[in-house]
Amino acid sequence: MDVVYQFEEVARLPLPGDNCAVAIQQLNSGTVIQYEGQFLVLDYTVMEGHRFAVKAIAPGEDLLSWHLPFGVAIQPIQPGHYVINKTVREALSVRQLTFAVPAEPNFTDQISPYILDEENFQPAQASPAYEDTRTFMGYRRHADRGVGTRNYVVLLGTTSHTGSYVNELAARLQGKWNKDSNIDGIVPVAHTEGGTEKPNNADLLLRTLAGFMVNPNVGAVLVVDYGNESVTNKMVEAYAREHSYPIDEVLHKFVSLTGSFEEELVKGEGIVRNWLGAVSSMQRTPESISHLRIGLQCGGSDAFSGVSANPLLGWVSEELVRYGGAASLAETDELIGAEPYVLSKVRNVETARKFLELVNRFKERTSWHGTSAEGNPSGGNMYRGLYNIYLKSIGAAMKKDPTTRIDYATEYGELMKDGGYYFMDSPGNDLESIAGQIAAGCNMIFFTTGNGSITNFPYVPTVKVVTTTRRFQLLSNDMDVNAGQYLEGKSMDELGQEVFELAIQIASGQRSVGEKAGHAQVQIWRNWQQNDASQLETLLHTPVPTGAPIAVEDDTVTMANPIQFSFTRHRNRQSSDHIGLIVPTSLCAGQVAGMITRRLNEQGAGKPELSRFVTLAHTEGCGTSGGPAESLFSRTMIGYITHPMVEHCLLLEHGCEKTHNDYMRHQMDVMGVDASRLGYASIQLDGGIAKVSEKVEAWFTDQLAAAEPAEKVTVGLEGLRIGIVSAGAINKEAGEQLGLLTKMIVGAGGLVVVPENSGLLTEDGFSQLLFGSSPVRPSIAYGEHVRQNGFHVMETPTTHGVETITGLAATGVELIIALIGDRPMQAHPFVPMLQVTSEQVNLPNHNKQDVDLVLGGNPSFWVNQILERSKEILEHTYVPRLYQQGNIDFQMTRGFLGVSL
């Protein structure tokens, strides 16, 4: 007989009596394991974190972990057999594995629905409170705000429209305060919400923004809008006062931007500088730990999350609650299937009823979008052993200790007013869930992770707890606590006490690992577009655009223009610019990609072959629905990967997302895109932020060293790839001239793309000139790379300006001409935007200061004026104003059917 392993050497049972064990390392096919007097022989290779049977399981019998069912056998499963369902089989099929997986699933995702027995419900008693207390060094605020663990100046964009403003203002203010002062930093809070008409999440957004303002870690807050969005400063202030948020007890100012972008940045700097003395004078004092409010999160979870790290947080939470503090459990869809455990101890029947109402509401909302709340687990979750939402939920629920009572079930962002253990409604998307906990008043976040999630929040410290020693060693520079010690024999009491002491130290000012890394991100629960299922079938069966250009009416009036442009040609393609691009495959890789590109640009890397390095930080790829929304995302990302301005491109995965590197490789194969010339890196698998940064920089260095020189070429209008958009009222003469310009470029063999939501398509001066009275339908999908020049209309399942530009730039256009009828648009990270208006438009002077071209005089000369300024931009002798000033944004739409999971 080959080597025989004792069960404890290679596997764990979550609880005695379970019929499925978890492998603590990869076990090859044929491995022999001695378990309770029998020898188990593995029929297939079982990956670390995946499960195999330890008892015979008959068809129709439940598969059990923690004594709770996570599926039903559909064929006999013998001891030693790898247990696998359909979704994990499919998820592994796109991975580059070196071993075989079962050809067929042997269990299906099925459990009995939970029904609350109200008639026999018994309220649970709380654990005995400690008679004494302990203290930490915190910032005492007004009694209604609590005590801060940090002291930050926060720059808060009310909607996505002012996100680029607060980001740029924060960048200008870095280093403007004394590092030895009591100010922990000046941080921006930019997000994606409030930028469309009548958002369905407006109330949720107002509650979150009000909560952000009064969080005890805020020393001062500047709240910024334009004054005409769907959610405004006035609405935030009115909501806060109506719901008794103590905004008068925090140093704050509401500012509406009415000047030019540069003028407003100068004003913002002045406001914040005047606050620094007052914020710095705030002092830490000894405070009871009953003022600690901790948010409990898990991200990049694996099969050991529910065995080591989550029970550890349950221990810490129970201890804190007994001292009078509060803990918040969240992620509604990640508790589906764990209801019997979650509701085993509840304060009263009303709380239990509210919990189930929130779960059912979540399920209903996702069903409107053609998906299921049970579809939450990401590709990374499944790769690391979480087969379905039931198994993921059972493990996630272990953040509540068995002795802990659920005291409150609350709405997303609803303030935590008393001590106790809370459940807060939120999606499983980590950053969206964390934002709700911060708004609720959490002054610390405890975040468990199996794969090694590196996310942090700007002004609330995050403590990272990793599930296994192997993963902790790989990511030691990005993790705070190794819960794998529990798997290796350390008692939960001993480990819990160590982490509790660490929590007090971090609350008192010791920086967490994430804070030292300077890494932080924000995302609020994103808007959802459907309020019922009435449009679902239509949306699911919307015809796919053909990709063929739209015919433009031919006439003899349009004349060719002799203008020429100096481009470069490399590898059989020509373009106006060459950049190095890092594509984050999910939101959690976005800021790391940004950190790398900043360093490369500061070093002057790539010169002169590359003009600069760029990243495209976004909010997608994890914790969102699949189907049409996921296809839209991958199509758009591939549009950028194949963009003519991109010379060298690397995909940076977080490592646990749905749209990981292997997923993107598979999508490129399906679309016929050569994925071999790209670079690939993984924050988690390559060893964390520092190591992956070194790997990415080395890859670009190698690519640049091996590159052949580009040659200069001269092109005419046939070489142009132009996108045209409009914002606000359209001047008829300007519309006509843009129509003439379009006919000239298309007639010469170039490319023009207009988004479906542009007013130009219904403006007679533009539309009549191009296609008369004929109806026009989109010829390409949102974000689709154009494969045939001519005139195209791009689908736009969004009304958001930045989301429209994000899709438009992915089509391959190298210049976007924006016809401005009101406020100028936020610029794109690398496709230049020429913002144009005319003297006839009654545009405020401060807006005219931000446009690049004001058309005046005889309209017949306007086309030439636009082409001349376009030439300056494409040949890099003129940089568009708002790009130069940092008014830049990038935001992916989720389409009509995208929804947070």
UniProtKB/TrEMBL annotation:
MF (Gene Ontology): hydrolase activity
Domain D-galactarate/Altronate dehydratase C-terminal per the UniProt entry, residue ranges: 289-528, 772-853
UniProt keyword Lyase, yes or no: yes
Domain D-galactarate/Altronate dehydratase second: 138-278, 581-697
Keywords noted in UniProt: Hydrolase, Lyase
Keyword Electron transport: no
InterPro entries xref list: GD_AH_C, GD_AH_second, UxaA_altronate/galactarate_dh
Similarity remark: Belongs to the UxaA family.
Stated name of the protein: Altronate hydrolase
